[in-house]
Amino acid sequence: MVTNETVDSPPDMLTDTDYLASEIHQVRSDIKEMAMDNRVNDVEQNKKLLEISNKLDAIEKSISKDNSKEIRSAGCQKEQESDMPVPRCEKEFVLKHVFKDVTNFKEDVYNDGGKEEHFNVNWYTAAKRHSNRLGLYVVCLPVSPSIKWSIQTKLELKAVGRNQNDVIKTRDHCYEESQGYGFSEFLEWEKMENEYLLDGNLTVEAKVTIIETSGFRKEENRKFDESNVSDVVLVVRDTKFHVLKAYLASQSSFFQSLFTENPTKSEFSSTGIDPNDFHCFLETLYGEYAIDGHNLENSKKRGCDLKYKKLDSNVEGVLLLADRLDSPMVKRRCEVFLLKESKKTLVKKQQMANCYHLQNWNFTCAITNANSKIKQFTMKTVFKKNPTIADNRLIASNKYGRKEYFNVNWVIKMQNLNNNLAILIHCEPISPKDKWSIQTNLELKAVGKADFTVTQDHCYELNTGQSCSKFMSWEKMENEYRVNGVLTVEAKVTIIETTGLGKEKIREFDESQKDVSDVILVVRHTKFYVSKTYLAAQSMYFKAILLGKSSDSEVELTGIDPNDFHYFLEVLYGEYAIDDSTVEGILMVADKCATQIVVRKCQEFLVNSSKKILSKKLELAMKYSLAELKNQCMSEIKTIADIQAVRNVHEMDPLITAALLEKSLYLR
Fold this sequence. Notes:
With 668 residues, this protein is an alpha+beta fold. The chain folds into 4 domains: 3-76; 227-359, Potassium Channel Kv1.1, Chain A, CATH 3.30.710.10; 376-499, Apoptosis, Tumor Necrosis Factor Receptor Associated Protein 2, Chain A, CATH 2.60.210; 511-667, Potassium Channel Kv1.1, Chain A. It contains 21 helices and 26 strands. The strands form 6 sheets. It has a 5-stranded mixed beta sheet with strand order 1-8-7-10-2, with no helix packed on it. Strands 3, 4, 5, 6 and 9 form a 5-stranded antiparallel beta sheet that branches. It is globular and about 80 Å long. InterPro entries: BTB-MATH_domain_protein, BTB/POZ_dom, MATH/TRAF_dom, SKP1/BTB/POZ_sf, TRAF-like. This is BTB domain-containing protein. Residues 230-286, 517-573 form the BTB domain. Residues 88-208 form the MATH domain.
């Protein structure tokens, strides 16, 4: 049984027309009481009545404004006035999250679901216990919107019952600030515990339909308001677009059919399309570079350098229209942008490819994604001025300067070496074999108005550091790069190949496996004999490079450490090869090769067995989009002191810092 119910918005989330109406009723009651109060002299009474009257007027105006917004919203959803029957163009998606250990929810504390990005907006569900009731909400966080923005939505929240007794509640809502909206009294707490929890967990789904947006449009490259160079008008909501029939018909089978069936008609209207998206779609159709999403207005107001503010603000909306209106050229433009420029995650790109029917996307994307990922990390540290520094004395960055990457501890050190600044990258593997090596490419940078960079190759074979002994003169560093007594140094380390690190290998993939293999994968100088069809069945990347080259007996893989690849293959072939010494390298290869089964096994190990510190787990969770691991890490943070205990928070990845700050807001 499904209960479909629409309820009033909770007062802690939104002030709506019903709430304002009750305010008016209360004010009018106050007026009557004061009019009947003979103890108050006329002057005082008139003054108070005037104040109340002004308040009443303000509330009535607010109601009028809110009602007009609701009327406009309702009008937006009426499709009967449309004479351009666009095939289902709603911007719609479903958020699904399993809230764990719900019985231990604290009173009035929001518990977040997994964040997802849809149409350049981050969305997630939230649950809260309040006065023995369960509250459910949908939170909206736009990615770099303009100062004033809005998203008109239709929300459908569902609590999944154990016996198909789902509860569904719906509401229309216009988001105008980053906030949550929903139902503070979605279910009685006791009923939720008895009928909806399964092993202490609650499954929640939220279906979001975006009706219309404002404040997200990039600066327009061209107008579509010139009637003298057009022969038809397309009206999308209240916006008119003057275009050429013949050109649109040549680029879209939908428009070709529409204009053929209505040869004499000069104007068509549709309420089922977002006018912002349609404008960008037309710009792309007319050859403009519209699928990059520069939010120029917002960047200018913030004084940002525009070339560093390229966003993915419109590609999904344009791709939706290109798919529904059947415009192959626009779809190709979107596909090229997603492959070459977009910063969306691989998972999000694959979701879009499946939803909008991008041909050959999975193969192309898997190869492009793999080629872009290498075993690399960046450390950033600061050295504060110390007048007691003696020549030739090594100075480490700070007490938390040591960082662990790929089961190796790394630290940046500096030295005044004969009046020259020397920068040293120190490397110390965790529990290596007697003989080991790490082949690297090092890029050292002093941060200033004009960054100073030096690169070099180095093979570590001892617990020592590699020094750039004459990075720059000490005097130049003091005059040009030390700001307020602080020198900022960055080190980008690319690991090419390792030996002697990690646990003992369980099985071989050498020539002894020749009889049970049909392809050789060459990783640097190491050959791996494997089954082409088995790997292709486990990974879209291997399917693309192996089945597409069926005649090749050897295929070279680049950007992979052969040591990591060996452990990765062991996991893929069912061995227990994951431990704290191998998990990061295996995870990097699994992500690069789009092998989700190995990614899941790495996450299971990190959640259930790993002894790595919390900050390292958080780093891996954010880098590889491991939602379960992230949720576990966040659940372990219960106080502000726990956040402060996470080492060098200010030096962590911005995504991790943001997640911790978000957590701290709830804790406060």
